[in-house]
Design goal:
Radius of gyration: 25 Å
Structural class: alpha+beta
Strand content: 5-15%
Order of helices and strands: EEEEHHHHHEEHH
Length: 176
């Protein structure tokens, strides 16, 4: 029988299962050491083997840029490359040329935000999670609807666009 309370073998404290890291091969699905003890052990191990850890970090290979798994140093080098900047600028200009109504809606919303006509929100209007970088979602790109926006977190914004694509709604066609 699985209980919701478990005893840490390290500190001996009885804690709820949420205070233990998950481990699929354990009988109750969690490790036998609580999160607090685990963090202490990890920190102590890092301090005891600091040169080994530093050497590992120094020699870790840069990963493929296309997979977005690269070191911070390689990423900085890549983003400061003039060819990269030109490529990004070309893509942005192409998008602006192909999406004039969307770009106009973006500019109108950003100007309204700057001028105080629109108030920035910090809780997603779908999931109500607090997020410092919410996206402005436009329901329509008609000029009269440019300031009718919904503040969404990145994951809800992506899910909303996926839903709209599935039902075949194209906000660009509303304008024509």
């Amino acid at each position: 029988m699985i209980t919701s309370i478990k005893t840490c073998f390290k500190c001996g404290a009885e804690k709820p299962l949420t205070e233990f890291y998950k481990h699929p091969q354990m009988k109750d699905g969690t490790v036998n050491k609580c999160k607090a003890c685990n963090k202490i052990d990890v920190y102590k191990n890092k301090e005891d083997n600091i040169e080994k850890v530093r050497n590992y970090d120094r020699n870790r290979p840069n990963r493929d840029i296309r997979n977005k798994k690269i070191s911070a140093r390689a990423k900085h080098r890549y983003h400061n490359d003039e060819n990269y900047k030109l490529t990004v600028a070309k893509k942005k200009n192409k998008w602006v040329a192909n999406n004039p109504s969307k770009r106009s809606a973006q500019c109108a919303a950003n100007n309204a935000l700057r001028n105080g006509k629109l108030e920035r929100k910090y809780n997603c209007e779908h999931c109500d999670k607090h997020h410092s970088r919410l996206h402005k979602h436009h329901w329509s790109y008609l000029p009269e609807n440019w300031l009718d926006i919904v503040w969404l977190c990145p994951s809800c914004h992506g899910a909303e666009h996926k839903r709209l694509n599935e039902i075949g709604r194209d906000p660009d066609k509303e304008e024509k």
